[in-house]
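Handout for the seminar on molecular recognition.
Each group receives one record of this type.
Step one: identify the two inputs.
Step two: read the structure output and locate the region that could contact nicotinamide-adenine-dinucleotide.
Step three: write two sentences on what you found, then compare them with the reference statements printed after the record.
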Amino acid sequence: MIGAGYVGLVSGACFSEFGVNVTCVDTDKDKIERLTRGEMPIYEPGLDNLVLSNVRAKRLSFTTDLKAAVTGAEAVFIAVGTPSRRGDGHADLSYVYAAAREIAEALDGYTVVVTKSTVPVGTGDEVERIIREARPDADFDVVSNPEFLREGSAINDFMRPDRIVIGTESERAQEVMRHLYRVLYLIETPIVFTSRTTSELVKYAANTFLATKITFINEIADLCEKVGADVQDVARGIGLDGRIGRKFLHAGPGYGGSCFPKDTLALAKTARAAGIPLRIVETVIDINDERKKGIAEKVVAACGGSVAGKTIAVLGLTFKPNTDDMRDAPSLDIIPALQRAGATVRVFDPEGMSQAKALLNGVVWCDDAYETLIEADALTILTEWNEFRALDLERMKSLMKSPVMIDMRNIYDSSAMAEAGFRYASIGRPPVKPR
Ligand code: NAD
Ligand code: UGA
């Protein structure tokens, strides 16, 4: 497994749990040293136990020595990052191609080289060309096997996926892949065998569709606020239609994370380059960017039109709960906007604080939820961590300067908040006057 990040580490640990011998390789020495000591470089529920038990069983190991890991392997997964390329938004494939060049040098006997990283159409062809050029003698196939796991529920997503997509026309490679995934095959997980190009596109189409679904409900939420309707009932009312489905219809401050923002952009770029602009996708990207930039206004409005000189408490910094990942988190737009408007911002996140410290300046870092509330003029909840779902409302009121909550994740009941005496604003739900 080349790359021991969110995807490589989780996939490597899960494959080893399936009984496969896995070596995770990373160029980041510190990461490999920590893993070797049994420390997790990321926060992902359940990952520490899974890694430790498979290390003990000698099915999982870590190294910086790519050559040693690849030589003799039946399959080599490329799970390195594919971030947005600075300046133009295309996927930056330099890590993938660097890995391919190194893999080429180490190939020994028939090997299936699998791209698990999210890569644009045609990347598999280029990986094949790079390896073939470096090693005309090598016996290998290049397969696309995109990953659909979500951070925060990554292990369950990997162990019980809705489907597995495998892109290759080589029967020999298909056989190796079927064998690797045999545990899931036996529990009748659907496996979509297709061409490499199609498989690459499936991944972008999936992420883009989900981002579109979220953006759609976010716009409906804005309309609900104007006309006095309730977006959660709309979501339920449409989501119970099996053709629509209930998932990914939670309105919020805009999607973030390491993948939706960069993948929607990369697909739009690929499509433009192919002369088939995807106007829906381009619009989704614009709407979501504007939403994240503008949503601080909700806090300003709840504070009576200005936050200058006020103290705002923020709970939740990561882009979603159960991860420490801060990539493209809405908090990174909202907090600086509040600061520019003159607010002092007090923050807390259960797992994201150390990553956030490198990205946010001038905030007051607090040790728990209640500490953020001290003398606060308002609280906004940006991430729906479970521990923020049942805060002690009386204790909150005693700590805050005024009981104002802007709930960007709709995790509180509007009537109960009004009953408790809070001025409560949420996303796409009718306001209820405090009693
Ligand atoms: P990440 O940044 O967490 O990890 C990538 C790792 O690769 C880093 O540790 C880096 O040091 C290492 N690396 C880079 N070049 C290397 C090389 N030549 N040899 C060895 N290691 C190298 O990234 P991630 O979030 O795991 O994402 C990886 C890929 O998977 C991306 O394409 C992403 O779009 C895709 N993906 C991510 C998720 C997710 O939830 N994060 C889900 C599905 C797919
Ligand atoms: C997403 C996809 O769900 C995974 O299938 C995919 O493998 C992954 O991207 C990837 O390619 O990296 P992830 O980014 O970890 O997973 O998390 P999601 O649960 O999809 O959430 C993404 C963002 O959308 C978050 O900011 C979340 O708050 C937001 N979201 C999600 C909503 O605002 N509403 C929803 O209903 C769902």
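Reference statements: The chain has a mean pLDDT of 97. The pocket of nicotinamide-adenine-dinucleotide (ligand 1) is lined by residues 2-8, 25-28, 31, 66, 79-82, 95, 98-99, 117-118, 147, 149, 151, 258-259 (CB under 6 Å).
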